[in-house]
Specification:
The complex is a heterodimer. Chain A is of the alpha/beta class. Chain A is built from 12 helices and 15 strands. Chain A has a 7-stranded mixed beta sheet, sandwiched between helices. A 5-stranded mixed beta sheet of chain A has the order 10-12-11-14-15, sandwiched between helices. A 3-stranded antiparallel beta sheet of chain A has the order 1-2-9. In chain A, helix 10 links the parallel strand 14 and strand 15. In chain A, 57% of the residues are buried. In chain B, the strands form 3 sheets. Chain B has a 5-stranded parallel beta sheet, with helices on both faces. In chain B, strands 1-2 form a two-stranded antiparallel sheet. Chain B is an alpha/beta fold. The N and C termini of chain B lie far apart (53 Å). Classes of the chains: A alpha/beta, B alpha/beta.
């Protein structure tokens, strides 16, 4: 999946970038090991562990039984003893079976020990739909994890960020939930977004948590998104530009910590805010972003903020029904039009 | 003093020093717990407080098999385990009162304390949830090629949790050095084992995974010690996990808020009169003339002083500073 271009670039998919970050860290830190379902021999359902068992062997890249509570709990225990586990749970939808190990143990042992115990583990999982897999394999659930204190939450939109955020996660002494969107992974069967496959340096590097990226500068409206939402926002910005509207696009990159300053600065400039989120509409990321702006300062707003999020319904199987629900560039443009009329 | 065989059990050998230490360690737990009960009654300890009284022989006997590099993890009935691990009674009691001098700076309370220095990994509040964690500790011991063993404690109530069996499977599959210690104190909160468990022989719960198990008289500290040494040897020799079912009894309610009306006073009194783990050791010490009465009294005094000191500390240590609320949520860089 590496594509050499004429300009000496090295374009990687998010899946390859994640695997490369993990491999580079495993070469220098023997405490890093992987556990998960079909991550070794099969190579990971979403490609992000491909090649690792071949290089590091089955002791360090370990297929587990389908026993999520046991292996995520085991990772929490091993992390308390100084190991640096990387654990994959294939779909974020599956976390219901093992949530206790995550939000009651992984996320609380640092606090409950008064800082005496560290939990340096990375929990990675796939999010998102769009390929007709229905409501137990297509959710995002970003807000569920960001809501609960005690863990960092990462959701990259492109391969460059994916590698830098993964390396940072592997070196962090706090638990990190690393959420990768299936539609950005570079796996053809999931309907890959080409904008996620970008130039990635071969050397190891980190991206700081809590720093959103202004991926497109503009004057008239701020569009905030994460993961797939960033790509929808960029396409909407192209459409708006053809109408003479200048849109600024912000990629959150991490939800915990959340870079509220960058959002507030942008909205102070544009006066309009649209949040794009593939997670459910109510009680979620979109509401939190809007609240972060309006509780800070209402005066700069030219129109009520808008959200383009997944409706509060279980995700349906039917392709037209699912596509009707998903955020897309046209809905973002419509949201701008609603504000323009305000 | 040279090792000498016990009167009734040829397999058990002990020195007077060992037995006196078991007596002392069990007595410390009992007096500490009695004091905790008092402080709770005075309103100085909030929340839930689960006392270990009656079960002292379990953790004291098993700690006799503990070696440097081993790890201990348990549920929320954890004060006894912490004391047996050698954690400072002051820090434990001050955590019970939620003070800054507590092991978790007042953020954890009775159910949540840790000490990496003493290889104690909690103190966990969800029934059975520590079992996967203990399995992971054993994973780390094996991964790092140490000689270490994890003592993973849980109760008869936890033994009906699904995650226990996920852990059994993984531990045997990967031959992890973990002793699953089932403290069968006969009641899961108020539900007697026979009312909750289709098979009440908990030592057999590993059969379908190929994990051996053994029932042990958990009121007899020497029997516990012997079983612990045997189990630790099994794990250290690379044979994988093993299950010990410690048949024991909790004298008090499930927590301080439980008056234990689900069982008769006669049942409790009979257990205290005939099987008390501390009385058994005390009688052994006296009947076998292993120590003088003065030595016993000296131990009693020492224990009383330690407990009183911990209670004083727990009441004078300051309340946590509000700024502490925002620390340790994540590891600060």
């Amino acid at each position: 999946m590496t594509e050499q271009t004429g300009r000496n670039e090295r374009r990687l998919t998010i899946a390859r970038a994640m695997a490369e970050a993990v491999a580079q860290e495993m070469r220098i830190d023997p405490r890093v090991f992987l556990m998960g379902e079909d991550i070794a021999t099969l190579g990971g359902v979403f490609g992000n562990t491909r090649g690792l068992v071949e290089e590091f062997g089955p002791e360090r890249v370990r297929d587990t039984p389908i026993s999520e509570t046991a292996f995520i709990g085991a990772a929490v225990g091993a992390a308390a003893d100084g190991m640096r586990p990387v654990v994959e749970l294939m779909f974020v939808d599956f976390f219901g079976v093992c949530m206790d190990a995550i939000y009651n143990l992984m996320a609380k042992n640092i606090y409950f020990s008064g800082g005496g115990i560290k939990v340096p583990m990375v929990l990675m999982t796939s999010t998102g739909g769009g390929y007709s897999d229905a409501g137990q394999h297509s959710q995002c659930l970003y807000a569920t994890f960001a809501h609960l204190p005690g863990m960092k939450v990462v959701a990259p939109s492109n391969a460059y960020d994916a590698k830098g955020l993964m390396t940072a996660a592997l070196r962090d002494d706090s638990p990190v939930v690393y959420m990768f969107h299936k539609g950005l992974q570079g796996m053809g069967w999931l309907g890959t977004e080409p904008g996620a496959t970008v130039d990635v340096p071969e050397t190891s590097y980190t991206l700081p948590f809590g720093q959103a990226a202004v991926v497109r500068e503009g004057r008239d409206v701020t569009i905030v998104g994460l993961a797939m939402g960033v790509h929808n926002a960029l396409k909407a910005a192209d459409d708006l530009a053809r109408r003479g509207v200048s849109a600024e696009v912000i990629d959150l990159r991490t939800l915990v910590p959340l870079d509220r300053d960058t959002i507030r600065r942008s909205v102070a400039k544009t006066g309009r805010l649209i949040v794009v989120d593939e997670d459910y509409h109510s009680f979620g990321v979109s509401g939190e972003i809007i609240a972060s702006v309006v509780e800070h300062d209402l005066r700069g707003l030219k129109a009520p903020p808008q959200r383009v999020a997944y409706p509060d319904v279980p995700i349906p199987f039917s392709r037209p029904m699912e596509q009707f629900c998903l955020p897309n560039p046209a809905k973002i443009v419509q949201a701008f039009d609603r504000m323009a009329q305000a | 003093m040279a090792k000498k065989p016990a009167a009734d059990k040829a397999r058990q050998s002990y020195t007077s020093e060992e037995v006196l230490k078991y007596y002392r360690d069990m007595l410390l737990i009992r007096r500490f717990e009695e004091k905790a009960g008092q402080l709770y009654g005075m309103g100085l300890i909030g929340g839930f407080c689960h006392l270990y009284i009656g079960q002292e022989a379990v953790v004291v006997g098993l700690q006799a098999a503990f070696k440097q590099g081993d790890a201990v993890i348990t549920s929320y009935r954890d004060h006894g385990h912490m004391l047996a691990c050698g954690m400072d009674p002051r820090g434990v009691m001050a955590e019970l009162t939620g003070r800054a001098g507590g092991y978790s700076k007042g953020k954890g309370g009775s159910m949540h304390m840790f000490s990496r220095e003493k290889a104690f990994y909690g103190g966990h509040g969800i029934v059975g949830a520590q079992v996967p964690l203990g399995t992971g500790l054993a994973f780390a011991q094996k991964y790092n090629d140490t000689d270490g063993v994890t003592f993973c404690y849980f109760g008869d109530g936890s033994a009906n949790q699904g995650q226990v069996y996920e852990s059994f499977n993984m531990a045997e599959l990967w031959k992890l050095p973990v002793i699953y210690v089932i403290e069968n104190n006969q009641y899961a909160m108020g539900t007697a084992v026979a009312r909750a468990s289709a098979v009440t022989e908990f030592h057999r719960r590993g059969e379908s995974f190929g994990i051996p198990g053994k029932p042990v008289d958990g009121m007899n500290v020497l029997a516990v010690r012997d079983a612990g040494l045997e189990a630790a040897e099994w794990c250290r020799s690379g044979k994988g996990p093993i299950i010990l079912e410690l048949k024991t009894y909790r004298y008090r309610g499930h927590s301080m808020s439980d008056p234990a009306k689900y069982r008769s006073k006669d049942e409790v009194n009979k257990m205290k009169a005939e099987h008390d783990p501390i009385d058994q050791v005390k009688n052994l010490l006296i009947n076998e003339k292993l120590v003088s009465e003065d030595q016993l009294k000296e131990v009693d005094r020492e224990v009383k002083a330690i407990v009183q000191d911990s209670a004083d500390f727990a009441q004078t240590s300051p309340e946590p500073d509000p700024s502490e609320l925002w620390t340790d949520i994540l590891v600060e860089a």
